[in-house]
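User: Could you walk me through two proteins back to back? I'd like the raw sequence and the structure tokens for each, with a short line separating them so I can tell where one ends and the next begins.

Assistant: Of course. Protein one, sequence then structure:
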Amino acid sequence: MAWIVLVLSGLLETAWAVALDRSAGFSRPLPSVIFGVTLVLSMSGLAYALREIPVGTGYAVWVGIGAVGTAVVGMVALHESSSLPRIACLLLVIAGVVGLKIFH
């Protein structure tokens, strides 16, 4: 269960990062509220997962999921660069996250 919560919390990290960008420095109310709610839920899920998963592994997996998710949203929905080197680097992050899970 801790791993499922950790993955969901990583996905929520993607949500709060995108909402933070869309809030335009907290000047737009709806994205600002979405940021706050998803931030609290993401951190709460991370805290829950860390009761069973070592902090180094849990935090790295959480950040990796959030970073890759945010980069993918940026490339797909926000028209950021989707160059081959950038995609290759994201695949390396995914490989690292999978490796941390396997060798946990």
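----
Protein two, same layout:
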Amino acid sequence: MTTTSTTPSVLTVRPIDPAVHGALLVRDDAGRAPVRSVDATGGAPLRCCLTRARAGERIALVSYAPLRRWAAETGAEPGPYEELGPVFVHDGPCAGPAGPGWPEGFHSGRRVVRAYDRRGHILGGELVEPQTAEAVAARLLADPQVAVLHVRAVEFGCFMHEVRRG
């Protein structure tokens, strides 16, 4: 878990929790074994540390249900808004993000910042460029109806990371 350096009391950027990461490497949220590989060229977005894989690094592709995990923690009932999708993580232990702040260099393309209410129902979303994503997240979290944000890739719809209030 990291807190953004520009507005520390506002945003908390959350990668996949280390305990969840370990569990996903045994059995993912779809009940399957992870798909393990070596990222030959590098660049896979790793949700355990919010960095990009280096060439030759061992990674795993797993199914992850971020809203399900958040709902279990908060008691929310997202119902049909719960989504399951593919994410890359390190194939083994991960130290997590290198430091606090919005994950520099992690977002290489357009993203959708999706807002959810305390029940886990979608309130809306905004299409953003990497350089505006943090500001949009801060603005969306200023709305008291918003409980949590998910940042997702546009081209594949994959979950990138979660954002909460400080």
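Residues 66-74 form the longest helix (9 residues).

Let me know if you want the two compared in more detail.
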